[in-house]
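User: I'll paste a sequence; please echo it back and then give the predicted structure.

Assistant: Echoing your sequence first, then the prediction.
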Amino acid sequence: MKPLKLGAAALLAVALSAAPAFATGPSTRDNVIAFLRQITGNHTVSGVHNKEPLSNPSQYTAQAHAITGKWPGLWGGELGFTSTDIANRQTMVSQARTEWANGSLVNLTWHMCRPDVATCQFDGGVNGSRLSDSEWSQLITNGTTLNNDYKAKLDTAVPYFQQLKDAGVPVLFRPLHEMNEGWAWWGGRPGANGSAKLFQITHDYLLSKGLTNIVWVWNVKDTDANNGSAGAAGFYPGDNYVDVASLDPWDHGFPTSDWYQAIVNVSHGKPVSLAEVGTVPSPSQLAAQPNWTWFMIWSDYLTSANSPGGLQATFSSARVLSQGQFTIPAGGGTPGGGQITGVGGKCVDVAGSQTANGTAVQLYTCNGSSAQSWTVPGDGSLRALGKCMDVTGQGTANGTKIQLWDCNGSGAQQWVAQSDGRLKNPQSGRVLDVPGGSTTDGTQLQIWDANGNAWQLWHLPA
């Protein structure tokens, strides 16, 4: 079977191999997002969090290596809340740069003190210091004292994110985590002016500081509070603010099916992850819920909630990617347009070069026209003539036709390049297909179950 040709500029490029392939060069958030889309449904990155003290920012990662013989594929760090830890942020950020250079993804969590408190302890500072409704209203109102205090607290982290940006390190940042539960001062407030609003403010403020290296990770917990899994969507800040949707399954263990489906549904085709776990997911559990793109074991739970055998079984699974088993493409930006070729050497083509919504996407003799010039912008879409390749009517059934449509970020417009050469639509679980393998000009493309046929293999633009 001929593999998918993955050009150097294609943001969907990813290499999965047994040989070390480290992410040593500068990269962008789009590269990381594209990689996560790429592995959705087939691989999960291993991860371990390193909580305080920030003076020893990789102690739990080292423990994982000692037990499993593998370095986790995701390193988790903390921005800190005590005066001692805040003073050691530089140590932590330097470790983040090292972990990225060694080939691991970088994830940062922030147990933040109240906006009007510079440093604090966890109990009574992060946990148990709930704002009154009046204070909350001030917090989310631009220009008030609490709003300015909050932005000033964000400012303390800006230089560290900037260092990572300058070094070409994208950061999976998970602010205001577990926001659907009220243990932290930022959580437990559903609705448009609740916890999600503060996430939006955080996103917009840090973006205004030029921190374009942040991959925004939204997070909830599997709590029964606030209507449980059915209420998770009430905390979602919106697709323009979220790159990855994540769950911390503490209350019910490995996610129940309703929580898994709730996160998949609210993500609208974006990658999903297990941002905190105590007990490591088993290979069979990851196969049963295949869309999780990473798991992150929470620090000391590595040994207190896991056996060496359990950790070794998961870290050695063919499904799980650790350091040295994947690479993130270097560089960034949207590659120039190019042809997508398939069976018979023919091209993916927009019928008649028309731009009307619903125009058929078909197979046609390659001719160099703009109707055959596709870009891969790194958001999961494939674009030509200013519009997106789309599964008609959000369909998921075998035989659903492919069309051109206004780009809208829906699951019908998500395409993930598989390592075996197929283009998968995660929403349907099916792949781009030529009906019956026909090479007749004008054959409209469709989605179909992945199989061994050559007419499901595609070459993206170089």
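Residues 1-25, 332-336 have pLDDT under 50 and may be disordered. Residues 123 and 129 are 8 Å apart (CA to CA).
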